[in-house]
Amino acid sequence: MEHYETEEQQVEAIKRFWKENGTAIIVGAVLGLGGLWGWRYYNDEQIAAKEQASAAFESQTAALLAEDANFGQAKQYINENSDTGYALLMAFQLAQQAIDRKDLGEAEKQLEFAAANSQNEAVNALANLRLARVQLALEKPEKALASVENITAAAFSAQQQEIKGDIYVKQEMFDKARSAYSAAVAANSANTVVKMKLDNLALAANG
C-alpha cells in the first residue's frame, strides 16, 4: 500500500481513485462476477444510474463547499446512493464540514455510517480513526476505544496506536498510554508529535 504522511493525503488519494476509476470498477466487477450473463443483467439503465450518482456527487460536493446550511442535500444524496462508494466519500466530506462548524454530533453520525458501510480495509480504517477522534472530543473515550479497535489495516497501526494513547491519557491510564505511544513510535519513528506525547507523559502522570 502506498504510504501517505497525513490522513488528508489518504482521503484525497481515495477521492482521486473513485473519480478516475469508480464506473470502471463497477462495470468490471459485474463482468468478473457474472460474465456475459452478468453484463446483460446489469443493464444500461443500472450503469446509467451509477454514472448519475457520480455526477450528483460532484454537484453535492459543490453544495457542501457552498456551505449548505443544514447539510440537507448532502444527506439526501447519501440516503439515495447508500450502496455506492460515492456515498462514503460524501459522508467523509460532510463529517469534515460538520467538524469545521463544531457540530461533532453530526460528524459522529456520518463517520459511523462510513465505518459501517466501507468494505475497503483502508477506507474503513480512515473512518474509524476519524470517528475515534470525534468521539474522544465528545467525551466518549469508551466508544472511541471501540472504534479504534475495529481497525485491521496494518498500514494504519501507527495512527491507531497514537489515538489509543490519547484515549488512555484521557482516562488517566498512563501505563497503557505509554505502551500505545511506544508502539506508535515503533511503527513510525519519524512521527515527532508522538515522541513529544511520550516525552510529556511523565508530566501528565504527575499532574
From TrEMBL:
Cellular localisation = Cell membrane
Q: How does it sit in the membrane?
A: Single-pass type II membrane protein
Segments spanning the bilayer are: 21-42
Q: Name one Pfam family in it.
A: TPR_21
UniProt-recorded Gene Ontology molecular function terms: protein-containing complex binding
Q: Which residues form the Ancillary SecYEG translocon subunit/Cell division coordinator CpoB TPR domain?
A: 15-202
Gene3D superfamilies reported in the protein's UniProt record: Tetratricopeptide repeat domain
Q: Which UniProt keywords are present, listed alphabetically?
A: Cell membrane, Chaperone, Membrane, Transmembrane, Transmembrane helix
Q: Which family does it belong to?
A: Belongs to the YfgM family.
Put simply, this protein is called Ancillary SecYEG translocon subunit
